[in-house]
Design a protein that fits this description.
homohexamer, mainly alpha, AhpD-like, 6 helices
């Protein structure tokens, strides 16, 4: 199961490169903005990651959830805090969110079994 | 193809256990409510399953569709009735729903080839 | 409050006419299909309306909800049955559905205070 | 403009009563769960409100946004913090969120001009 | 009915100012990017507006639809072309899109009765 | 990677057959309408495909994106034009669209490495 994390990150990097190679100005500006938005600022990195995670849950985007789970762990959030944010997302977004919660639980486990990649 | 059903149910059970182990109160109450809501009541189990199926189609959640397809069969609904509910969902939700209809057709077939798990 | 129903239906008819006047072939075929789909058939008119209502709730479309509430009443469904369908939609779609449930409650009330338009 | 807040809250209370009067068990349990979920707990009330606000933005529910804006102010969050959460939601949800950001800005202003209702 | 256009544009400008006054860096960059993206470039302004209109239809954002209807007219698109784009959006997005098509028809009419604001 | 295209098309055809075999009238009419809607008409085939692609992006349907990418190439659109349409969709739909952009980049590459299937 620990390959889940590596596979996800490898695919993500490889495809980001492909997209960057297309050299579309609008896309490049969106990616640039995305990189900067989650940095420590008016809100803490932790709070921003929990917001990103919960929004990804209610919008039901598995890859976005995986990304924010990993960033949440890196930011020092505990599993209990992560589950509480996902619980609120589950309540807001309804039972349709549950299959994504299952995949989130699997990925969180995978993050815990192997050292978070640097 | 008949492994589709078993794999889906095995993954579902395994991950539900992981989620329950996290012991989050809000999530546990949502799961509990979800279990009870589809029982025979003011509306028949059949009608509730068709509503669950159609809502899963328009919200485009493959796992939710699979779950409600299996429950619909268990409740005694015919494939013609199931397809009619999916047709209304397709009309309401538009052609964006069609890829999910494809996967639903595949899963319904898998349910028909093997005995519905008890 | 009883003007809610009349105003909704008047606007709906007037705008449908405007759309038909544009004479777009694709749109005309969609409207035609929509008119026929909810007729008694493989599933009963009642079941189809509950499906239409629940899908409108999870997709959070107030006008679609109003339309299916009125059709549900015409088909002879009780308020308890209507609320049960909306409850399942609320569970599936989450608390984000609640503001639409409020407007549905208001409209259902308006339908009850005045005779359903023929 | 200060009537915005009062009107919203009055309509909300009145319709919640109507819904409760329908006495549907599933809906009552969802409402009950919703009331409890945002209380101070594993995550702070402030963090939960920002999560609720951002999720409401990306799901584009104006009434939910209004509710969480008011709760955010009550919890002691500053406008800068609120805007930062909405900014992340805007980035995640895209420019389709902007019209809801406009109505949020209007409502936040209305909350600032009159004392927050107790 | 011709006030529809003026009211929409006035509210839009006024609220954009309020948002800009909040001076949030992420939001300002999104607004800036939004302004530039629809300019004549790799794709024509006309094609971009039709894409913007159709996306606004399937995402069911009335204000976004209004904005792109007005920009489409300014770019010289005919009502027949505009309706064809909306028809494809209606097909992709399903009958849930129809209430938004009604409001689009109303707004397009309002744009035709009064001179497009400069 | 070049199997991506063949696998997608084979699965699509096979499942469409299964769906057609169910012989549901509403579904057959939707499929029929879908086939005809994208033909050269009031708008060019190219414009319609870009609209279909962008709508599929903002609605985040990978299979729909794949289908319209292939049709876009067949219609003679360049990768730069395709990326510009996807960029606008990314802006409208937000960063939640990015994982779908990654899979689109992968599929577009696969379409370029092998001759487009007839």
């Amino acid at each position: 199961m620990s390959n889940l994390v590596e596979d996800f990150n490898a695919y993500r990097s490889q495809m980001n490169e492909k997209i960057m190679a297309a050299d579309n100005l609008i896309i490049k500006r969106i990616f640039n903005l995305d990189t900067n938005a989650y940095q420590e600022g008016i809100l803490s990195k932790k709070t921003k990651e929990l917001i990103g995670l919960a929004c990804s849950m209610v919008l039901r985007c598995d890859d976005c959830i995986k990304y924010h789970l990993e960033e949440s762990k890196k930011a020092g959030l505990s599993n209990a805090e992560i589950y509480e944010a996902m619980a609120i997302a589950n309540l807001i977004g309804g039972t349709i969110v549950i299959p994504h919660l299952r995949r989130a639980a699997e990925y969180l486990d995978a993050l815990d079994t192997k050292p978070t990649p640097k």
